[in-house]
Design a protein that fits this description.
By secondary structure, the protein is of the alpha+beta class. 19% of the residues lie in helices and 44% in strands.
C-alpha cells in the first residue's frame, strides 16, 4: 500500500494543474463571442445582449421601448411577440410588461426607474422562443 502513495501524489498534482489551468481560462470562456460597442443604438438608446440578439433600450415620455435586432446588423429587426423587463429596486424588483408596437416592444412602468438600475430583459420572438439578458438601464 505504501508504494501507491507516490503515484497518488503524482495523480493529484496533475489534477490540480489541470484544474488550475481551467480556472485560469474561465474568464476567456465567459467572454462574448462577438465584439462590438454597446454604447448607443440606431434609435439613440443603449444596447444590451439578450440571448443571441441585441436589445436597444429607449426611455421616453415615461415609457420603455425595446428594439430587438441581430448582432451583425442593427437595421435587421427581429420579429417579437412580447416580453418583460424586471427592474431591481431598493426594495426588491418590479416588472414591466412589454407588448408589440410596430417594430418594437413597448411598456409603461407604474414606477420611476432609478438611475443606472439593473434589469433583466426577456423577449419572446415570433417563433415562440424566449431570450433573456441583463442590462444596466441608463436614465439620463
Amino acid at each position: 500500500m505504501i508504494s501507491y502513495v507516490p503515484r497518488l501524489a503524482r495523480v493529484l498534482t496533475v489534477c490540480m494543474a489541470v484544474a488550475g489551468g481551467l480556472a485560469m481560462s474561465m474568464p476567456a470562456l465567459a467572454q462574448s463571442s462577438h465584439e462590438h460597442s454597446h454604447d448607443e443604438g440606431p434609435h439613440g438608446g443603449q444596447i444590451a445582449e439578450v440571448g443571441p440578439y441585441d436589445a436597444e433600450i429607449v426611455l421616453e415620455d415615461g415609457e420603455i421601448r425595446i428594439y430587438v435586432m441581430t448582432h451583425d446588423d442593427p437595421a435587421a429587426a427581429v420579429a417579437v411577440s412580447g416580453g418583460d423587463v424586471v427592474v431591481l429596486t431598493g426594495g426588491g424588483s418590479k416588472k414591466i410588461t412589454l407588448s408589440p408596437d410596430g417594430d418594437s416592444l413597448l411598456g409603461k412602468p407604474d414606477f420611476e426607474i432609478e438611475e443606472d438600475a439593473k434589469a433583466v430583459i426577456r423577449v419572446t420572438t415570433a417563433d415562440g422562443k424566449t431570450h433573456a439578458g441583463k442590462a444596466q438601464i441608463e436614465t439620463d
